[in-house]
Design brief:
Blueprint (H helix, E strand, L loop, with lengths): L16 H8 L2 H9 L11 H7 L3 H9 L12 H9 L5
Helix pairs in contact: 1-2, 1-3, 3-4
């Protein structure tokens, strides 16, 4: 097997390269991973949740335009929704 597993998760928090990229606001990295078919449903939180709670507006816009609406039922905090709203992006 060549290369790294694009969907590898950290042991403790089950973070993926995509969720970490979104948490850090790395739009170009997130774009690369999404185009390389990274699984958007892995991890304890979604890429959208990570980007929104950290205030990365351009990344939130990109994720929404890319169709990443995956929101874990029950655990998507209302505070994250309000953060998206406060950033000026209305759902």
């Amino acid at each position: 097997m060549l290369g790294a597993d694009i969907n590898a998760q950290t042991d403790e928090t089950q973070e993926t390269a995509l969720t970490l990229a979104c948490c850090g606001g790395f739009l170009e990295v997130a774009d690369f991973l999404i185009k390389a078919a990274a699984d958007i449903e892995l991890g304890c939180s979604t890429p959208l949740m990570e980007a929104a709670q950290e205030g990365h507006l351009e990344l939130v816009k990109y994720l929404l335009k890319a169709g990443l609406y995956i929101i874990h039922p029950v655990i998507f905090p209302i505070a994250v929704v309000w953060n998206i709203y406060d950033l000026g992006y209305f759902l």
